Amino acid sequence: MTWPDAYATASEEQAHVAREVDRALISIRNLSLQSSEGTQQTLIASNELSQLAVNLNQMVARFKT
User: Fold this and answer.
1) 2 with 10: CB under 8 angstroms?
2) Where are the alpha helices (DSSP H) in 1-65?
3) Which domain holds residue 19?
4) Rounded to whole angstroms, how far apart are CA atoms 42 and 29?
5) pTM of the predicted model as reported, rounded to 2 decimal places
6) What is the domain count for the chain?
7) What pLDDT, in 10s, does the model give residues 3-58?
């Protein structure tokens, strides 16, 4: 293999690795966005559940008096 051929092969391999890293980073970004959305949904549900618990405690307190 000549130097120009070896150089071209190495450049192609580096480009291939760079594309793989790019795809991996995009996947990580997408998973991070999904995780963030899931966290937001969990926060909303938790707040709603907390409010339901407060309401239930108030209703139960009425029966005690």
Assistant:
1) no
2) 3-64
3) 1-65
4) 20
5) 0.67
6) 1
7) 888 888 999 999 999 999 999 999 999 999 999 999 999 999 999 999 999 999 99
